[in-house]
Specification:
With about 180 residues, the protein is α+β, with helices and mostly antiparallel strands. The chain has two helices and ten strands. The strands form two sheets. Strands 1-10-9-4-3-2 form a six-stranded antiparallel β-sheet. It has a four-stranded antiparallel β-sheet with strand order 5-6-7-8.
């Protein structure tokens, strides 16, 4: 292969990688929809990493949903995922609705309380996680990503949109959860 062809091939791969990354970032920003009103969680309830705090958020089904433009109530959990300053990146919030069949997932803060059938499937657990009691789908605490089970994806996410001296604000939710409430 000539040096020119090799150079053009490498340049094409680089352009494709940059375009893919830009598309992923743009798509990620479009995946969230505003809540009917922001949820504010007191910062004093989120001082310890791994400690979760439940909340309820109000949203609206999407115009393309089976039942469009209808109010929907979503249960969520916000967790401080690391120590440090109070920036939005230190907090993650997920919807407690399993993407498999819509059962309510449970937050297991103490890894020793994880059922044996789950540890058999995914190994020793050393961090808090979410478990769906219906079919044992398990999800990571820090981002809701799927670890095991029949769920086709991770938990739906809320976006932490701000942190003040007094509260963590959640004002957006992943739009997929608004399609099939």
């Amino acid at each position: 292969m000539s040096a020119r062809r090799r150079f053009l091939g490498q340049a094409l791969l680089l352009v494709a990688a940059v375009a893919r990354r830009a598309w992923a970032q743009a798509y990620d920003s479009l995946r969230y929809q505003p809540l009917a009103r922001p949820v504010s969680i007191p910062l004093e309830d989120l001082t310890t990493p791994g400690k979760a705090f439940p909340f309820t958020a109000d949203g609206m089904t999407l115009p393309s949903a089976a039942t469009p433009n209808q109010p929907v109530r979503l249960n969520g959990m916000v967790v401080r995922v690391s120590k440090g300053d109070n920036t939005a990146e230190r907090f993650k919030a997920v919807c407690l609705k399993c993407p498999h069949e819509g059962c309510d997932v449970e937050f297991i803060g103490d890894p020793s309380r994880v059922p044996e059938e789950v540890t058999t499937a995914i190994g020793k657990i050393s961090a808090p996680l979410y478990i769906c009691p219906c079919h044992n789908s398990t999800f990571r605490m820090d981002d809701g990503e799927r670890l095991a089970g029949p769920a086709p994806r991770g938990l739906y996410r809320f976006r932490v949109t701000g942190v003040t001296a007094a509260a963590v604000e959640i004002a957006e939710v992943e739009e997929d959860v608004l399609l099939f409430p």
